[in-house]
Automatic annotation (TrEMBL):
Annotated protein name in UniProt: Subtilisin-like protease fibronectin type-III domain-containing protein
Highest taxon above the source species: Eukaryota
PANTHER family: PROPROTEIN CONVERTASE SUBTILISIN/KEXIN (PTHR10795)
CDD domains membership: PA_subtilisin_like (cd02120)
Family in the record: Belongs to the peptidase S8 family.
Organism in which the protein naturally occurs: Gossypium darwinii (Darwin's cotton)
Alphabetized GO MF terms: serine-type endopeptidase activity
Length: 537
């Protein structure tokens, strides 16, 4: 436990890991770039090898590239070998959202983690000359004089004669005219260059402060950064209002209030705009990401080899920083995996993954469906099974288990020959005759091309008290769903039961895009939830 952790005094509290007593070994796989690459497959695989040899229990892998075929994916191959040794592998989903089909680390043996917000804000309010208040966020250590208003300028109106309006609007290097900017608060649009770089460019041009406004795609995702000048990051709607105010008056004025830490903000969590999304472009039958966890403005211990903004111009040094990305959400899940490993040392990686997925929630702290950064209802392609709930994961009731053999059979369904499979298995694995990918015992059900009807099989193992579980189904639009049997009676721990789910396209009611539902097995103590994702052809 680290008492009094904070970023410039904000968010002060005791920092503790997900598995506070775990020992941490770090394997360096990314080095200064060589011809644009910094993380080479050879280094990644070497690290997996050493970690397996060292006998680690959990691997937290906050890296990834574009989604690619498994035989060509070093993280997927390394993860497979780790899983064979009972090591759970947790991976980042990627930061290429909000576009669809951007999720990486899409192997079914990896736990793939998206990023969402938490109920903490580092609020910095923007007050305009018309007395309108807008709630932004920031971790600026510098403050403007109390209650003093400054002239407000849109960065588009601050351009150098030879600069493009677009570059000026984004506050890019060499685009701002110091004669126009000096002594003013500058409004910069988000996009292209780093958020903190915009503040640096504004400061170099003589601005006293910066308002950073989101574009349409980033919506309501506002991030607390350690800006070098007084600054506030506001959402898209508020940004439009600020630009409208500037255009409506001859002498626009504004002030930026000092940062305060707020806890219990609503709605939370909501999905980060940057969080990579499904569908899985390599094997669309496997829903990815699997889960979402806190990944926005996370206070984390930080290197003192660089400043908090990672920019060369930042000479400040901090012990803790606020960092955002699926690289932050991934270790949250790894910490929870550590606790599950400690409590259930004999559980397989698949059982641990199932416990985390089936106990997740799709509701926020206002008891509404989790939203995306545009405050529109998000779905399984954003959050997988939902937002992680560690306490419930400790007692999941039932789990969907998988073995190394099941994963090899999964590769067989993709048509992998002996040579391709040899990258994953040293033994000469022979594929069995006919296997159906739809019956792969995953904790979610995804049918990407449903023609007419399909029946899928799943098996659950009791890891809780004896009891009777009943199936509750929320049907996707235009799809009928039947579960047989409708109840499963378990008499002891370790007992397994198989059930089938029949999905059928309702004529005239189906729509030709992905629709979502869910299957819940419940004994009124445990709620074992699986998303159902279907696209009718």
């Amino acid at each position: 436990m680290v008492p009094k952790a904070s970023v410039f005094g904000f968010g002060k509290g005791t920092a503790k890991g997900g598995s506070p007593r775990a020992r941490v070994a770090a394997y360096k796989v990314c080095w200064p770039p060589v011809s644009g690459n910094e993380c080479f497959d050879a280094d990644i695989l070497a690290a997996f090898d050493v970690a397996i040899q060292d006998g680690v229990d959990v691997l937290s892998v906050s890296l990834g590239g574009d989604p690619t075929a498994f035989f060509n994916d070093s993280v997927a191959i390394g993860s497979f070998h780790a899983i064979k040794h009972g090591i759970v592998v947790v991976c980042s989903a990627g930061n290429s959202g909000p576009a669809d089909g951007t999720v990486s680390n899409i192997a079914p043996w990896q736990i793939t983690v998206g990023a969402s917000t938490m109920d903490r804000e580092f609020r910095s309010v923007v007050v305009l000359g018309n007395n309108m208040h807008y709630k932004g966020q920031s971790l600026s250590s510098k403050v403007l004089p109390d209650k003093k208003f400054f002239p407000l300028l849109s960065a588009a109106d601050a351009k150098l004669a030879n600069a493009s309006i677009q570059n000026a609007t984004l506050c890019q290097a060499g685009a701002l005219d110091p004669k126009k900017v000096t002594g003013k608060i500058l409004v910069c649009l988000r996009g292209k260059n780093a958020r903190v770089d915009k503040g640096q460019q504004a400061a170099l041009a003589g601005a006293v402060g910066m308002i950073l406004a989101n574009d349409f795609l980033t919506g309501n995702e506002i991030i607390a950064d350690a800006h070098l000048l007084p600054a506030s990051h506001i959402n898209y709607t508020d940004g439009l209002a600020v630009f409208a105010y500037i255009n409506s008056t001859k002498n626009p004025m504004a002030r930026i209030m000092p940062v305060t830490t707020l806890i219990g903000t609503k709605p939370a969590p909501f999905m980060a705009a940057f969080s990579s999304k499904g569908p899985n472009t390599i094997t669309p039958e496997i829903l990815k990401p699997d889960i979402t966890a806190p990944g926005v403005s996370v206070i984390a211990a930080y290197t003192e080899a660089e400043g908090p903004t990672n920019e060369d111009f930042d000479k400040r040094r901090v012990q803790f920083n606020s960092v955002s990305g699926t690289s932050m959400s991934c270790p949250h899940v790894s910490g929870i995996v550590g606790l599950l490993k400690t409590r259930y040392p004999n559980w397989s990686p698949a059982a641990i993954k199932s416990a985390i997925m089936t106990s997740a929630t799709t509701l926020d702290n206002a008891n509404e469906r989790i939203l995306n950064a545009s405050y529109i209802k998000a779905g399984p392609f954003s959050y997988g099974s939902g937002h992680i709930q560690p306490n419930l994961a400790m007692d999941p009731g039932l789990v969907y288990d998988l073995s190394t053999k099941d994963y090899l059979n999964f590769l067989c369904t993709l048509g992998y020959n002996d040579t391709l499979i040899s990258a994953f298995s040293q033994d000469n694995y022979k594929c069995p005759g006919s296997i159906n990918l739809a019956n792969f015992n995953y904790p979610s059900i995804t049918i990407p091309n449903l023609v007419g009807s399909i029946t899928v099989t799943r098996t659950v193992k009791n890891v809780g008290t004896p009891g009777t579980y009943r199936a509750q189904v929320q049907k996707p639009v235009g799809i009928s769903v039947k579960v047989k049997p409708k109840k499963l009676k378990f008499k002891k721990v370790g007992e397994e039961k198989t059930f089938i789910v029949s999905l059928k396209v309702k004529k005239g009611e189906a729509i030709k895009e992905y629709v979502y539902g869910q299957l819940v097995w419940s004994d009124h103590v445990h709620y074992v939830r699986s998303p159902i994702v279907v696209k009718a052809v």
